[in-house]
Structures are given as C-alpha cells and as structure tokens.
Specification:
216 residues; mainly beta; Immunoglobulin-like; four-stranded antiparallel β-sheet
Length: 216
C-alpha cells in the first residue's frame, strides 16, 4: 500500500468472500506503516485498507481501498501410512515407538491418538521432519491413530488406524533399591528388575517444604 498525504494511520480489514465474515480487523499507526503480516487459512479473501488521521475511527478515515486475493496453503503431495502398529493389532507393552512412512515435501507431521469408543483426544504430537517416529506410553484400552504430513498446511492424513493396548496383570513383586546417591541436584538410583514390568515409576520424597518429585 502507498502512504497518503495527511495520513496518521490506517484501518485494515480482511473479509472472507464466500461468507462476508470479517477474518481480521486492525489498525496501523503512522503514515510510514504501510505493510502488515496476517496468518490466514485456505480461502478467497478481500483485503481493505483506508487512511485515517490521528484517531483511527470512521469519522476521521477516508474511503476503503480493496484488493481480492486467494490463499492456497502448500501441502505435501502425498499422505503418510502408519507402519506401527498394524490396524487391529493388540500391543502388550505400554511404551511403544509409533512409526509411519515419510512424505516428500513434509516439514512436520501431526500425530494424533484418540480413544476408539468416543474419539476423545488422548495425545496430539507434532514431529519435525525428517523424523517418522514418536514414543508414547498408553494405558490398556482401544485407540485409533492418525498421521498428517504438513508444510504450510496439512494433508488429508493416514486415516484412522485402530489398535489395542492389552497389558498383562500388574507385577506382583516389588523392586529392591540397590543404590541411591545424590551429587548436587542429580540423584542416581539403581534397583532390581521385576518380572513382567515394562516400565518403572520412581518417586523421590523429601521433607517439607521441598515436597515430592516423581519420574517414570
């Protein structure tokens, strides 16, 4: 946009041409402020700008200048395929490496886990390309997983891949702490393994006011 004589600022709007809805409304102070940055989704829009005096209100502003434009976000050409778990698989460990195929042009991947019964969100992760794996710990239950490849925008995605986490009974034995030491603010702890365990929960308890710290 060009600066106009006697202008003290600009009123700005962006409209969705399909619905007429205002997507953005704002202002810039100063005649030299002749550009702005706005994040928009896919769509057809109209950008409107008008020059104003020191107070950017309708009574002190001139007519709107407009320009129509279209946003088409760059999305990867392909969609990823989940490689672990397989659809319908029953997984017997709580912590797993979930994997998918790479997609050319992807900048990141959106990885989503939901409960199969009601599609309630369990975890949503963004993984930066070229990585095609993420580690997640889940409780026993039925889930669905989906992965989308993204650049400026995201593709359709892999579709819902159903799987089940079926953990065995909780271990009946307790581990035995074999070593514990503290160097500065770093604690080193060792314990015996327990048959049937695939992860351990560690808690460090200090007297007040420090409270309790936990780790898995």
């Amino acid at each position: 946009m060009d600066a106009g004589g006697g202008v003290g600022g600009y009123g700005l709007k962006v409209f969705d041409r399909a619905t007429g809805r205002t997507i953005f409304s704002g202002s810039l102070v100063g005649a030299g402020a002749t550009s702005t940055l706005i994040a928009l989704p896919d769509g057809d829009f109209t950008f409107a700008v008008r020059g104003c005096t020191s107070d950017i209100v309708a009574a002190t502003c001139g007519p709107w200048g407009t320009s129509d434009f279209t946003v088409r976000l760059a999305t990867p050409a392909g969609d990823p395929r989940v490689t672990f778990p397989a659809a319908g698989a029953v997984v017997t460990s709580s912590t797993n490496v979930f994997t998918w195929t790479a997609v050319p042009g992807a900048v990141s991947y959106e990885v989503t886990f939901r409960r199969a019964s009601d599609l309630r969100l369990v975890s949503h992760l963004r993984v930066t390309a070229p990585d095609t794996a993420t580690i997640l710990t889940l409780r026993s239950g039925q889930y669905v997983m989906t992965v989308q490849a993204c650049a400026s925008g995201c593709g359709v995605g892999s579709g819902l891949v159903p799987f089940e986490i079926g953990l065995p009974a909780a271990p009946s034995d307790a581990p035995v702490v074999t070593a514990a030491g503290l160097a500065g603010n770093v604690a080193t702890i060792a314990w015996t393994s327990v048959t049937g365990a695939d992860l351990y929960q560690v808690e460090l308890v200090q007297g007040p006011p420090a409270g309790r710290a936990g780790a898995r």
